[in-house]
Amino acid sequence: MSVDDYLDLLNYAKAINDGQWQADIIASLKNYKETTAEQQRVDSVKELWNRFDEINLLLMELFDKLRNHEEDPESDRWKERIWELKLERITLAKLIQERYIKIR
User: Fold this and answer.
1) Residues 5-45: pLDDT tens digits?
2) CA torsion through residues 77, 46, 101, 98, sign
3) Are 89 and 56 in contact (CB under 8 A)?
4) Dihedral of CA 74/79/80/81: which sign?
5) Radius of gyration from C-alpha coordinates of the chain
6) What are the structural domain ranges in the chain?
7) Contact 99, 52 (CB under 8 A)
């Protein structure tokens, strides 16, 4: 149910003077906010992990290119990109630790 649904029910509970139902709906709304905040935190961590996995895939592709085509004129650019991705991965790992594992 959405917040609007809960508010509609709350208005109805007030209209029929059902105090217990009003209290139950208010408690549900409070829990809804907590659940939503928790879900946002979980989604944020999932996004960080998804980006971390993407970086790992890109690194594997670049390492394969370097291994198979080391003399390619693009190899310097690939090496530079590898360093950029490694730095981004370190930053992501720190964010994951702060938000997920709670290590600083």
Assistant:
1) 888 898 999 999 999 999 999 998 888 877 777 777 888 88
2) positive
3) yes
4) positive
5) 25
6) 3-103
7) no
